[in-house]
Amino acid sequence: MKNYYIVKQAFFFSLLFVFVACNLTETNKQNTIDTHQGYTIKGYTNQSYDSIFLLDKDSLVINKSKITNGAFLLKGTTSPQASFAFVTFDAKMPLHSFIIENEAYNALFSKNNWMILGGDLNSKLAYFEANKTNLLAQKAKYYAQYKADHILAPKYYKLRDSIDNIATNNLFKFIEDNNTNILSLYAVKQTTWPIGNLNTLQTALNDSPNNELKQYISSLKKKIKKIEKKEKINRREVAPDFSGTNLNGRITSLDDVKKNKKAVLIDFWASWCGPCRRLTPTVRSLYNQYKDKGFDILTVSEDRSIDAWQNGVREDKMDSWNHIYDENGYVAASYGVRGIPHMVLLDDKGRIIKNKISITELKAQLKDIFK
Questions:
Q1: Which residues lie across from 300 on neighbouring strands?
Q2: Which CATH class is domain 243-369?
Q3: CATH superfamily of 2-117
Q4: Where are any strands of DSSP class E within the chain?
Q5: Where do the domains of the chain lie?
Q6: How far apart are CA 78 and CA 101, in angstroms?
Q7: CA dist list (Å): 305 to 270, 289, 311, 312
Q8: Is the pTM of this model over 0.70?
Q9: Alpha helix segments (H runs only) across 1-152
Q10: pLDDT value at position 35?
Q11: Greater model confidence, 165 or 20
């Protein structure tokens, strides 16, 4: 069966070659006498269809032709601006897409294969897609060699990365070369973009007159950033729970503090820590700014004595929020604290937004959370 399929494929492309050569010759002959300024789509199918239909980009029928002995001719005029179009033989059949302009096309359809050749932009797209397919085939070949232990991992990764770089450069060049026509937007829409590559492309197209393309890229960047932000949030780890003695001699736990809160700051602090105490006015200001919006703080003392801890809290006027005493340093150890000040910001689900967040980052995060 495999050999039979290969023979059929070979027959199709052999027939295609002869067909196109003949049609191009015939087209050249008729160009001297044909004054038609629109499009012509000459073609052949070896399937038993009665008619062929031409559809516009909205899938509305704009032309049709009878098929006689497998041959057909679609002839008409389209907008001067190129657009995507489709051909089909039946409403239940797949749509075959191409770019239609007021130019000559040659088409060939078999049961499992089809081609529509001709047209300036259609030809450019076909050439680009053929190069892309060729690069994918090379990658597949190297991967197969790697899996079969015919090449070692370092060589495979080098070859793979080289092909990826070529593909990326080809894509950028294709979009830039076609930035004034529909091919650029089509290529952008068909690609999965890392945000870095999209930034580079946006810069390269800064002077392009194609506002639709530039607006789409700007919109796409916003969508990607939202997706990446959501993915980053979903990867957050839940903060380990802990508890300790509070200023009133009772037990306070992180679970108690974070209930119904949009953000919680765990602040590892000590009265002997000068940098900690210098940050206190800023932390207090942030607490007062956001406490009524769902923000709370749990300060974990690393003091050497309870008296020093309690006196420091009173001196720095920090008793408006929650405090516990980390008597043996177990809480600090569970959060990887190697020195203080050390602050950890949690989200509304008790997940760690950032462990060891700076005061500048803390301000920005709170502003974003409570905007």
A1: 268, 324
A2: alpha beta
A3: Carboxypeptidase-like, regulatory domain (2.60.40.1120)
A4: 39-45, 51-55, 61-66, 71-76, 83-88, 96-100, 104-109, 114-118, 243-245, 251-253, 263-269, 295-301, 322-325, 342-346, 352-355
A5: 2-117, 123-234, 243-369
A6: 7
A7: 10, 31, 10, 11
A8: no
A9: 2-30, 120-147
A10: 57
A11: 165
